[in-house]
Amino acid sequence: MIVAFSVTPLGVGEDVGEYVADAVRVVRASGLPNRTDAMFTSVEGEWDEVMEVVRRAVAVVEARAPRVSVVLKADIRPGVTDGLSSKVETVERHLSD
Description:
This protein is an alpha+beta fold. Helices cover about 45% and strands about 25% of the residues. The protein has a single domain (about 1-95), classed as Alpha-Beta Plaits, CATH 3.30.70.
């Protein structure tokens, strides 16, 4: 499964990059395949391991912010691996045609 999520601290002012970086550190330390862009961090793995990483990423922000907003989108396809790369490669292949 692939989960794309964002964690936004509320009540800490406009500059939230430091808080988001804390969450991304948790994801990167997990060892699961992941990718971060301007809007979301995506992480790939089995349900329990991915959701645990999301939980820990939210907790690290929650520890420093009075309120946290989480947006999460999941692509659940049993048996599919390397979806983070293969989905993008498929689109790129179609773009080059």
